[in-house]
Every structure is written in C-alpha cells, then in structure tokens.
Amino acid sequence: MRRLFTTRAVHWLALLFLCAAYLQGGFNKATDFPSALAEMNHFGLSPAGPMAVAVIVFELGAALMILAGFHRWLGALGLASFTLMATFVANRFWEIAVATPERFMAANAFFEHWGLVGAFLLVAWHDLKARDEH
Fold first, then answer.
1. Taking the model in full, what pTM does it have?
2. Residue 91: which of 69, 107, 72 has the closest Cα?
3. Domain count of the chain?
4. DSSP assignment, residue 94?
5. Packing angle between helix 48-68 and helix 33-42, nearest 10 degrees?
6. Per residue in 103-117, pLDDT tens?
7. The pLDDT of residue 134
C-alpha cells in the first residue's frame, strides 16, 4: 500500500481534491456572474463586481498554482488565508440562536473550514521543506 499511496499520481489527486471547492467555486462564479454578484452583496462585500472578479481570479489562480506546483507554497498560503477570512464572514455561528439546526450547521462549517486551513498550511510546509532539501 505504501508504494501506491506515495506515487505522484496519488499526491496530485489529493491536491486536486483539496482544491476542488475552489475550482468549482471559481468556475461557477465565472459562468454565472449574476450569482457571484449576489453572493458578494449577500456578504456585504463591495464593490460587488470587482470583488467577484478578484475572488474568481484568486480561487482559480491559487488552485492552479497548487496543482501545477508553481510556487505551490504561495498558492496554499493564499487559500489558507482566504478560507480563514471567508469562514469568519460566512459562518458566524455565534450570531445564530442557540440550539437551532442553523447554528449547528454553521458551527460545523466553521470548524470544517479550519480543517481546510490546516491542510493548506501542511501543503505550504511540505513544499517549502522540499525546496530547502534540494
């Protein structure tokens, strides 16, 4: 099993899975710009148009940097930071009434996003460590 799980293909597939939400999010926003604008407005981000464009470019660009191995550490730190900020914007469970399904779901999403932040930090750490070893 070790041989299988340490192949480049499995490594790249793991990175693809980690970046999937950002690729999907960027693609969906790019192909349905009115919905991207609505999302920016929903979260109070303005001006909505430039913010939506910036999010699209950032999500797709950082994910592609990770997948291509082009300054992978930078793309990973970028998505870690983006995810951390977005978590505090979109999942403010502490503002939702206690003991409601909405609060439960928002709290779960909040802490799941911390897992993504940790995964991206590990990607950056491994990439920088590998650069130091060469």
1. 0.93
2. 107
3. 1
4. G
5. 110
6. 999 999 999 999 999
7. 78
